[in-house]
Amino acid sequence: MADTGSAEPEITRAEDLVRLEVAFDGAVNAGHIWMAFQPIVLAGDHSIFGYEALMRSRNPDLPHVGALLDAADRLERSVQLGRLARAQVATVFSKAPAERGLVFVNLHVRDLFDPTLTSPFAGLTRIARRVVLEITERTSLEGVDGIVDRVAELREIGYAIAVDDLGGGHARMGHLTPLDTDFVKLDMSLVRDVESHPVKQRLVQSVVSLCRESGVRVIGEGVETQPEADTLRDLGCDYLQGYLIARPGPPFVDPV
Ligand code: G
Ligand code: MN
Fold first, then answer.
1. Hey, whose CA ends up nearest to atom 4 of ligand 1?
2. Is the CB–ligand 1 distance for residue 224 below 6 Å?
3. 222 lines ligand 1 (CB under 6 A)
4. Domains (ranges, CATH) in the chain?
5. pLDDT by residue (tens digit) across 183-210?
6. Cα-to-chain-centroid distance, residue 94
7. Which of 12, 125, 154, 222 is the most exposed place for a label (fewest CB within 10 A)?
């Protein structure tokens, strides 16, 4: 049968992968992958509640986090990258004073079942009571078996759970509903110019009131302006995160 696939010859693709692998190993071994931390504050007085850990790269060949995640994906080394990120978070937060609050860690669906998350020997497990695992609403959880049991297990060993990017995806949470978690993070698209969009305000209000009934706390993400912050606070949002408060940075940037 004629080759109707990519015009790219096999040999070039193989060479590309090798080059990518060299770059990826270089980044890992040279310590070019680091974690930035962005404050999450109380909506009322902007005092520290915690930080979201965000992966960053200072490798010249993989110069931003998107390139790094793509490389890991192509090389089937995403699990390794996730473990590296969580180990770094654990190193920082096991030494962080209580005033720094909780640390929010992004978790890909495929990492949810990583045994290191519950291993008593892993750094993050040891500080689980200070950790909130963020599960994004952007990746479908439909058809992922055992998710409710796994989330229950993670909560039992001390982790809290957040639904990330609520309102930005397809709400395909499968059997996990946001009301079975501890935090909901509103997607930036709901936050942007919320002060002048009545429909966004109604949506935020509904999410807040549903969450309140179930004891779930609400975080507004990507807050860039004072009117956005004030409106979210007035609508009952518990916490805020975004460039208005501080950009992600090395541990630890303080809110302005
Ligand atoms: O989906 P998730 O919560 O993981 O996304 C966080 C991303 O949003 C990070 O890459 C972070 O740098 C970025 N971010 C944080 N605050 C703001 C903000 O106020 N505005 C914008 N545009 N991006 C932000
Ligand atoms: Mn997040």
1. 106
2. yes
3. yes
4. 7-240 (3.20.20.450)
5. 999 999 999 999 999 999 999 999 999 9
6. 19
7. 12
